[in-house]
Amino acid sequence: MSAASGVSPPQEVRVGGGRLDSTSRPALVMVDCQCLFTLGGSPGTRLHAAAVNAGKAAATAREFGLPVVWLRTIYHDASEIGPVWRVKAPALSQLRPDDQLAGFDNRVGYREGEPVVTKKRASGFVGTGLDALLRDLGVRTLAVAGFTTGGCVRATVVDAASLDYLPVILPDAMADCSQEIHDAALVDLDARYGDVIDSSEWFVRVAPRN
After folding, report:
1. How many domains is the chain partitioned into structurally?
2. pLDDT of residue 4
3. Model's pTM, two decimal places?
4. Catalytic residue IDs
5. SS (H, E, C) 76-141
6. pLDDT profile of the chain (210 residues), mean per 10
7. Helix (H) or strand (E) holding 50
8. Do the domain assignments include residue 92?
9. Percentage helix, strand, coil for the chain under 3-state DSSP, each rounded to 5
10. Looking at the domain assignment, is residue 11 inside a domain?
C-alpha cells in the first residue's frame, strides 16, 4: 500500500495460474462427433485416434454412471447456417437431417436414448436447451470431447465457463483440421476457461469410490 495515498497499487492481470475443482457433479458432453468432421480419419491419423478416444470416454462415463450428452449440428435449409459460416465453412451445408455426413461416427459410440441437443451455431449453448438440460441433471463439472478443438469445442467451453460450469477439456478425445489450431486452442482454453486434462487422468479422478 502506498504510504502517500493509502491506495494499493493495481495488480497485473494474469491468466492460467489456477486449477479448478474438476470432479464435482460431472457430465460428459460430446461435441459434433459427426462424420463430416471425422472425414479423412483413417487408422494412424490424429482424427482416428481422437474418434476412438472419444468413444472410450463415452463408454467410461456410462460405466461410472455419468450423464453423456451429445451435440450435433443440423441444418434443414442453407439459410440457417448464417452469414459467417456460409462464407467461412460452406461445407456445413451438407449437414442435413438425412445426410450420412450428419450422422454420428461409429467410433464415438453413440447410444440410442442418450440426450441429443441439436444446434446451428458453434456453441452448444446458443439457441438450444443445453443449459436447461444440464441444470436439470445437476451438472457442475463439464468434461468436453469431440470436434473441432478450435471451433465448436472451444465455443462450447467458453460459454460453459460464462455460465459458471467447471469445464474440463479432454485433449486426446478431440481434434481439428490442423495440429497447430488444435494446440493453440488447448493453450488458450487451459489458460482462461478450463482445465486441459487427458481423459484417462480425469476419469481416475472421478471414478466411483467403493
Report:
1. 1
2. 55
3. 0.92
4. 152
5. CCHHHHCHHHHHHCHHHHHCCCCCHHHCECHHHCCCCCCCEEEECCCCCCCCCCHHHHHHHCCCCE
6. 62 76 92 96 92 98 98 94 93 94 97 97 98 98 98 98 98 96 97 96 90
7. helix 46-63
8. yes
9. 40, 20, 40
10. no
